[in-house]
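Incident log, support desk, overnight shift.

02:14 A customer reports that sequence design results differ from what the structure should imply. Their input is reproduced verbatim below. On-call engineer (initials T.W.) acknowledged and began investigating.
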């Protein structure tokens, strides 16, 4: 009798986990999203600043906190990056956003949708820049410009490359 009760209890617990009604499912999902966010952060932290010899991580333009990952389907994710330019009038914020877009599109091994934003209140023209860096046609057009493409390539080049 105890064996049957144990089996039923185990089966019910499994069903609750699989259905998402148990907190264990949320914890596993949260851990999975945290792992994905760290994977994304590892890709962007080494991007070089267009003006300085430092990485975006070294300049605190990006941090682990600036990456959010949400599951939107079966092995499909929404990645939201909110970066902080070094100054509120940074003239290269759009270029930094372009570098983030390009490197993540090239390097992430999983299916994703990407949104890159300037953190609220950190830039004088954040709305305009956010529109530009999330417009696929503008990103593609920018990468067709040989001068911009060369700058982006230098910024996204891995240190070991």
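02:41 Re-run completed on a clean worker. Output:
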């Amino acid at each position: 009798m105890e064996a049957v009760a144990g089996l039923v209890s185990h089966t019910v617990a499994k069903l609750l986990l699989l259905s998402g009604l148990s907190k264990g499912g949320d914890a596993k999902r949260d851990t999975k999203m945290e792992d994905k966010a760290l994977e994304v952060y590892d890709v962007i932290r080494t991007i070089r600043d267009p003006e300085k010899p430092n990485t975006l991580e070294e300049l605190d333009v990006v941090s682990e906190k600036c990456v959010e990952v949400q599951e939107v389907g079966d092995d499909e994710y929404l990645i939201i990056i909110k970066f902080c330019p070094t100054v509120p009038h940074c003239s290269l914020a759009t270029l930094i956003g372009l570098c983030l877009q390009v490197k993540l599109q090239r390097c992430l091994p999983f299916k994703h949708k990407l949104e890159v934003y300037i953190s609220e209140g950190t830039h004088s023209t954040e709305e305009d820049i956010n529109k530009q860096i999330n417009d696929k046609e503008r990103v593609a057009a920018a990468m067709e410009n040989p001068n911009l493409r060369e700058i982006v390539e230098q910024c996204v080049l891995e240190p070991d490359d």
